[in-house]
């Protein structure tokens, strides 16, 4: 589940659902990104250059690959 708006940016498991909230770009200056391997991470604008801020709630586990049902 991916959510956003003016909430606190966070990645966590709720039961067996991966909850991703990108926060907002105006007040918390955060964004949700996915790398080429499918890892999700929250980036926070901390300085004039983009900086990754370590946080135990901003890294998602690697996704499980599930074949498409045809």
State the main characteristics.
70 residues; mainly beta; two-stranded antiparallel sheet; 0% helix; globular
Looking across the biggest beta sheet, what order are the strands in?
A: 1-3-2
Please describe the biggest sheet, giving its number of strands, its sense, and whether it closes into a barrel: 3 strands, mixed
**SSE run:** EEEEE
Q: Helicity, in percent?
A: under 10%
Strand content: 25-35%
The count of helical stretches stands at 0
Mean pLDDT: 76
Structural class: mainly beta
Give structural notes.
The protein has 70 residues and is mainly beta. A 3-stranded mixed beta sheet has the order 1-3-2, with no helix packed on it. Strands 4-5 form a two-stranded antiparallel ribbon. 0% of the residues lie in helices and 31% in strands. The protein has strands at residues 2-3, 10-14, 17-21, 30-34, 40-44. 11% of the residues are buried. Strand 2 (10-14) and strand 3 (17-21) form a beta hairpin. The protein has a domain at 2-44. It is built from no helices and 5 strands. The chain is globular.
What is the structure about, briefly put?
The protein has a domain at 2-44.
What order do the helices and strands come in, and which of them pair?
Layout: E1 2-3, E2 10-14, E3 17-21, E4 30-34, E5 40-44
């Amino acid at each position: 589940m991916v959510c956003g708006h003016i909430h606190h940016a966070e990645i966590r498991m709720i039961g067996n659902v991966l909850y991703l909230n990108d926060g907002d770009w105006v007040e918390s200056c955060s964004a949700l990104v996915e790398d080429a391997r499918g890892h999700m991470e929250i980036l926070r604008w901390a300085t004039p250059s983009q900086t990754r801020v370590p946080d135990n709630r901003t890294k998602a586990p690697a996704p499980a690959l599930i074949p498409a049902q045809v």
